[in-house]
Inverse folding.
């Protein structure tokens, strides 16, 4: 019996699923009480896409051995894959009743109701999850999404403040929220005070997290706070940041404000870190040209030529040198 089980599991690991099922079926005729056989067979049927057969085996297991959290979770996943949302809700409700201390069961129900368009219940279940674990990330994120869909923006931003103060949620995920804001100009303009409070609190909480700097700079630029933007970027670059996006933002800002000495200096600094970025040489050459330092302009353009991959750009640079 043990040899047969090990053999079937080996076939399963090798992805020889049909052969594994044949062995499992032979074994189960000899020992129908073996839970490992039922579970492994149900998993294989799930992988093969036979969700109905997989669910049937889970039901057999539950009938014989009672409700098991893992079994019910897997059964719920299968119903979701079949898009049988009402059945998934029924299993989820049972999970909440049997295992009331697990907030994940509540957030899954919340997600299902959200998919059904019932944000009111999605909010209720996420709030129940937060009663169990006040900082539970999935509940906070699900709750904020539901509030936004319901246009309950006071609640939405209050929840976002909790998300942005939650160390269990990656800052990269928080940055993604701001990228969504930046892409929606109308939303940004309407809720600028809320977004401004949120991002200032965010960067104050994690002042050394360099991943926040670019979106904070974009926020200042979007609101036309060019003096604040210039000061912020200069401070970060002078303190040792090598983020190329910060260099580009600072150089472009100083070109825009015609600060050509500053542009040339920081372009040189950036070139030392990123010698193959041709655009930096072009920025520096433009600043030098505006200062009428033509010899230095030609030298910078010639230095850039070996790093140019495009023939059209190379022709443009040669034309600039000729001019």
């Amino acid at each position: 019996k043990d040899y047969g089980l090990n053999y079937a599991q080996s076939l399963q690991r090798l992805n020889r699923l049909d052969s594994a099922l044949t062995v499992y079926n032979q074994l189960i005729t000899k020992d129908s009480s073996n839970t490992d056989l039922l579970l492994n067979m149900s998993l294989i049927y799930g992988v093969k896409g036979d969700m109905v057969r997989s669910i049937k085996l889970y039901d057999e297991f539950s009938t014989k051995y009672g409700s098991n959290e893992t079994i019910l979770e897997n059964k719920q996943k299968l119903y979701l894959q079949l898009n049988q949302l009402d059945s998934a809700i029924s299993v989820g409700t049972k999970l909440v009743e049997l295992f009331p201390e697990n907030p994940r069961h509540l957030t899954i129900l919340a997600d299902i109701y959200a998919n059904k368009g019932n944000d009111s219940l999605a909010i209720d279940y996420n709030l129940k999850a937060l009663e169990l674990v006040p900082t539970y990330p999935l509940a906070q994120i699900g709750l904020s999404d539901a509030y936004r869909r319901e246009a309950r923006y006071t609640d939405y931003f209050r929840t976002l403040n909790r998300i942005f103060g939650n160390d269990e949620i990656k800052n990269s995920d928080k940055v993604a929220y701001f990228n969504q804001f930046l892409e929606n100009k109308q939303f940004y303009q309407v809720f600028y005070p809320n977004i401004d409070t949120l991002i200032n609190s965010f960067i104050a909480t994690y002042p050394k997290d360099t991943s926040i700097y670019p979106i904070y700079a974009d926020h200042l630029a979007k609101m036309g706070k060019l003096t604040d933007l210039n000061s912020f970027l200069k401070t970060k670059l002078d303190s040792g940041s090598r983020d190329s996006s910060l260099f580009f933002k600072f150089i472009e800002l100083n070109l825009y404000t015609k600060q050509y000495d500053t542009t040339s200096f920081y372009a040189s600094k950036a070139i030392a870190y990123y010698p193959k970025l041709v655009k930096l040489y072009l920025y520096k050459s433009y600043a030098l040209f505006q200062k009428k330092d033509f010899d230095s302009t030609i030298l910078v353009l010639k230095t850039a030529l070996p790093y140019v991959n495009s023939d059209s750009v190379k022709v443009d640079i040669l034309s600039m040198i000729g001019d």
User: Anything to note?
Assistant: Residues 5 and 36 are 9 Å apart (CA to CA).
